[in-house]
Design goal:
single chain; 9 helices; Thymidylate_kin_CS; nucleotide biosynthesis; EC 2.7.4.9
């Protein structure tokens, strides 16, 4: 059975870049690795509806914190079987965003902390009711919110197809989300966490994660 690793962080933190480098490092070591990004745009009707809502479609859907959270959660519910299948035939499954993303953004939108009702609701909804797999390790890519915002804006300027959505344009929301992420990591929410910065050595991080025995993952910051 493979291990499930997750990369979390605010928009523009550099999750995609880190994910690519980790996958490359593991593959060089001969490991079978597969990567899945959430939301699964162009693969999931729930993810596509959420994206459309965040770009102004579907009436007042984006204004409902819980409606948006449900759409993102349903995307993962539909992917749960696929993730289990991938874990059964790969050494590592790496997810770019997962349940903690929903918990952090939902709590931030409601201006709640990591120990508030929103995070507990997401935990019970996704892990208990929907039964999505629990990660072995969650990594928080912790970068200054201002730098992440600059990166997101630059990405938009360079690619007309990457228009920032309502969440990405809300600097205050990104700051609150970053704070919730930090608290989730500090409390080891649902599994061990590792907090890394943009300067992290991907090869070293990949080796640290891969070389620990399954079921005995003890990742330190």
């Amino acid at each position: 059975m493979g291990r499930l690793f997750v990369i979390e962080g605010v928009d523009g933190a550099g999750k995609n870049t880190l994910a690519r480098r980790l996958v490359s490092a593991w593959e060089r070591d001969g490991l079978d690795v597969v990567r899945v990004g959430f939301p699964r745009y162009d693969r999931s009707i729930h993810a596509d509806l959420a994206a459309e809502a965040l770009h102004g479609e579907h009436g007042d859907t984006s204004g409902s914190v819980h409606a948006m959270a449900l759409l993102f959660a349903l995307d993962r519910k539909d992917a749960a079987g696929e993730i289990r299948d991938l874990l059964s035939c790969n050494d590592i499954v790496l997810l770019d965003r997962y349940v903690a993303s929903n918990a952090a953004y939902t709590a931030a939108r409601l201006e709640q902390s990591a120990d508030g009702e929103a995070v507990e609701w997401i935990r019970a909804l996704e892990f208990e009711r929907f039964g999505v797999p629990v990660p072995d390790v969650q990594m928080l890519l912790d970068v200054p919110v201002a730098l992440a915002a600059e990166r997101a804006a630059a990405r938009e300027s360079a690619d007309a197809a990457r228009t920032r959505d309502a969440y990405e344009r809300d600097g205050s929301l990104q700051s609150r989300t970053s704070a919730v992420y930090g608290a989730l990591a500090a409390s080891s929410w649902m599994s061990p966490w590792q907090v890394v910065t943009a300067e992290v050595d991907p090869d070293r991080l990949a080796a640290e994660l891969a070389n620990q025995p399954s079921g005995e993952l003890k990742v330190t910051p």
